[in-house]
Each structure stands twice: as structure tokens, then as C-alpha cells.
Amino acid sequence: MLDPAPVIRRLPRAGLAWRSAVAVAFLVLLVLGTVQGNDDRWPFAPMSQYAFAVDLDGEIRSTRIEAVTTAGTRTVVPLTPGGVGLRRAEVEGQLGRFVDDPALLEAVAAAAAQRHPGRPRYARLELRQTVSRLVAGEVVGPPQDVLLSAWDVPDPQHPLGCCR
Amino acid sequence: MALGRIAVLRFVLYAFVVLDALHLTTWPLDHGDVPAQLYRPILLRRLLDLPAPTETSVRVVLVVLVASAVVAALGRLPRAAGWVCAAAYLEWTSNAFSYSKIDHDHVALLVALLVLPTVGPARDAAVRSEAAGWAVRCVQVATVCTYFLAALAKMRFGGWDWANGAIFTWAFSRRGSDLTDALLAVPHLVLVMQWGVLVAEFLSPVLLWLRGRALAAAVAFWVLFHVGTYLTIGIHFLPTVVCLLAFVPLERLPRAGRSGAGRSRA
Question: What residues make up the domain containing B222?
């Protein structure tokens, strides 16, 4: 419980002034960030997590990268911090770059080789999406599989020249 | 505002920073060995001329972040350790978001770390301080902004179609579980949930005016909301959840409990 007649520590005028100015400026930037900004301006970025509308008769796309290893097996690349250091959403965030420049997929092979030197290397990488169709807001039928981009690593043992 | 609230907030928030860096927002460490081709620095990092994370740099930042947070959580060097922690956290989170995926759950905590050092020592819990009041209000407003601006963002990017659309179906099918399958099986339930979220986010500024039980109920609602999103799609939003504590009269924690915490902190 508070003591009776508590001491109140006031702010000097200057302290009050800069605090007010900073608070107002930060708030204005935050609001502008959401109203007309973009992700690049974080922390003054739109609070846009799950903010887009999904058409009831649209589609749902899930992204993954598949790899054929030097051992000849096909595997799904773990798009996790512990897997290749990159999360699925980060791959989706630069999807256009991977499509425009499939060679960028070699960076994923390099990241995997860096973290898991003992495992078979990725010789071929494929950026793929499963596309589920929505009808009246419900998923119908089996999902379709689409290949967006593929890259054969020229020197699978040393992607981007790494891990020698 | 009583300094007691600052003392407890400091302990909890700085302790949370340690948890966040070591268990929740851990991927900046993993970015250390992602090839720089995939590094897409956000404006803040470009303005500050911060280099692409490397295996060494991420480890150094992590050590500084955890060490400063521990010192600040113990109530020592509230200004120096607090500023170092704020700077390290900004480096850590800006790394987290510089590979083309931005999360929006860290803004309130970042604000808290930026304002807590300005209060200075908070040993005398019963003393009321305007500096403490400003800091707590900043955290409260930033927390409300996280919700309210999320509603504005939904209007900007989705319009009213957001609430009438299939966003929950989309999220549930991408990150689903048995629970989400069960929810999707109930007709129209996702629409009701979507409207509920939107209305709650638009109403969130009332948190700044509510008092007593009404405030407690509103804070409890948001905590339950986050429990729900965690159980359904695995998104915990904890960096925002801990900031809801700024609305709680922590200074009224029993004195015995506080001195006990003080002993364990000493």
C-alpha cells in the first residue's frame, strides 16, 4: 500500500517539453506508418500482420523449397532458423527475387551447407507452391502443385564457393 | 505514477528481453550465416549504416543484449544498462526484420525499452513521479497502437472485405491443427471471429480510459485473444502481451512480495 501523503517528483519544464515532443513525433510516425507507409520503415511500418483480405472464392498458396541432394534423394528444405537460417515467410517475402533470379536459390544451398556440413549437399533446388482453391470460403479439392523457379547448383559441394 | 510500477515493469520486461533473445526471437542469430545476397536491410539499418549480420556480429550483439538486460532487470544502472539494452534490442530486431519479413509484435516492447531508462532509479517504490507516469503512458499508448493500427491496416489493405473474407480460413489452412479444423467445421464461426477481432481492435483505445475492474476485464480479453491465436495458429505475440502489464497496478503488489523479489534480485 502507498504511504500516506506520498512524495511527488515533478518534471522540470525542459524535461516535460522534450518528452511531449518525442511522444507526439513518435505517435505521428507510427500512425503515418500504417496509413501510408511500408514495411521498409519499421518500426514505423503498417501493423499489417494478416491485414489483407482473402477472397472467399480465391486461393491459398503455401510456399516450400524442395531439393535434390548429391545423394540423389528429394527432400523438403527446412525453412526454419535451425534449418537454413531463413524462415518460410522470409522466402515468401522475396519470392519475386527468387523467380526473377533462380540463381539466388544457391544462397539457400550455401546456408544449408554452412549449418549442416555433414549432410548431403543440395544439387538442385526448386521453389514450389501448393495452391488450394477456395469456394465460398472453404477449401475444395486436392491442392495443386506449381513450380515457380529452379536452380541446378554448378558445384554442389561448394555452393557459392562456400565450405571448402 | 508510483515508481513501484516502474520497478516491477523493469524486472519483468528486461527479463522478458532475455527470454525473447534466447527462446522466441532467436532467428537473428541464425541470420549470421545466411549469405548476404538474401539480406534486405530495412531503412533504419541503411540510415544507421549497419552492416549485414555475420556469424561474429550476431554473437556479440546477443551477448551485449542479454548482459545489459540482466543488469537492468536487477535494477542496477537503470540508465546506462537501459540505453545499451535498447540499442542492442533495436539492432537485434532490425536484423530479424531485414530478410523480407516484418513482424508487428515488437513495437510496444521497443517503446518500453526506449522510455524506461529515462525514469532513472526507482528504488523508492512509493514515490510518485511524473517521469514514471510519462514512461508508463508511452508503453500503454504503444500497446494500444499495436491493436488500433492493426485495424486501420486491415481497412487499408483489405477494406471491409477483410472481415467478410476468408482470412482465418487462409491462416488456419496454412498453420492449422486439429483445433483449427474443428473451428472451420462450424459454419460461419470464422466470420464471427473475424468481425470480433476487427471490432475489438477498433475499440482498443478505451484501454487508455478504463479504470478498475473494467480495465482488468479489457486486459484479460486481450490476453485471452493472444492465447487463442497461439492455440490456433501458433502466433504468441508475447512481446506485446508483456506490455499489457503497463495497465496493471503493479505498484500495489504486496510489499512482502516486493521485498522478497528485491532480496532475490540483490
Answer: 3-265
Q: Do the beta carbons of residue B168 and residue B193 sit within 8 Å?
A: yes
The residues that bridge with A60 in the sheet, in sequence order, are A132
Q: Which of residues 5-44 of A touch B (CB under 8 A)?
A: 6-11, 15-16, 19, 23, 26-27, 30-31, 33-35, 39-43
State the Cα–Cα distance between residues B75 and B13, nearest whole angstrom.
12
For B90-136, the pLDDT digits (tens) are 999 999 999 999 998 999 999 999 999 999 999 888 899 999 999 99
B28: helix, coil or strand?
helix
Predicted TM-score (pTM) of this structure: 0.89
ipTM at complex level = 0.89
From B217's Cα to the closest Cα of chain A, the distance in A is 23
Give the Cβ contact number of residue B249 at 10 Å: 13
Residue B148: count other Cβ atoms within 10 Å of its Cβ.
21
CA distance B184 to B19: 33
Are A48 and B157 within 8 A, CB to CB? yes
